């Protein structure tokens, strides 16, 4: 976990990728897309903790249709900048059986996390699983899943802000930054 001083230094050296205004406009756009596609399906919205919390909260407040909400927690980066094995920390409490599920997360990077989540929810009997992400990383990788809804693209750098942490810090930023290459 970065100390307060380390976190301030990370931000000072970070490079702005998307301003808070750009992020907000992109969330508006995605909310309209989701409303058009899922507005009549009474979906269960599942926030992927921890990184999905900011996007899920801001997105939900823009969805003008009935929906249920719950969360799950799966993690494979911890506070590191490279992914490892996926660890499930919490399953959704609400049953997904026969539900249209909208999974909300901060970033589709290599796609390992969301592929495993989608697979598990379908095995648990979800009728359909849609993936919404705040950011889709342009890393040229052949990702095992694609996002049905993606607010923004981000470059192939380690990014932080808007739910995403840099060494544990700065999930709370309304804008998105890239770590300075060391
Ligand atoms: O597409 P992938 O390469 O699998 O990476 C994306 C996942 O990595 C991050 O989670 P992380 O493991 O850092 O957990 P956290 O949200 O609890 O920090 C992020 O929130 C996504 O869930
Ligand atoms: O670029 C990233 N930033 C923060 N968290 C992440 N989890 C996967 N990729 C990233």
For the termini, the CA-CA separation is 18 Å
* Average pLDDT rating: 95
Provide the low-confidence segments as ranges.
none
Number of domains: 1
Largest sheet: 6 strands, mixed
SSE string, helices as H and strands as E: HEHEHEEEHEEEE
Question: Considering DSSP H and I runs of 4 or more, what fraction of the residues is helical?
Answer: 25-40%
Oligomer: single chain
Heterogens: 1-O-pyrophosphono-5-O-phosphono-alpha-D-ribofuranose, hypoxanthine
Structural class: alpha/beta
Give the C-alpha Rg: 16 Å
The total beta strand count reads 9
CATH class: Alpha Beta
> Could you say which overall geometry the principal axes of the C-alpha atoms support?
globular
What is the CATH architecture term?
3-Layer(aba) Sandwich
- Report the sheet-strand fraction: 25-35%
Catalytic activity: IMP + diphosphate = hypoxanthine + 5-phospho-alpha-D-ribose 1-diphosphate; GMP + diphosphate = guanine + 5-phospho-alpha-D-ribose 1-diphosphate
Protein name: Hypoxanthine-guanine phosphoribosyltransferase
InterPro entries: HGPRT, PRTase-like, PRTase_dom
Organism: Azospira oryzae (strain ATCC BAA-33 / DSM 13638 / PS) (Dechlorosoma suillum)
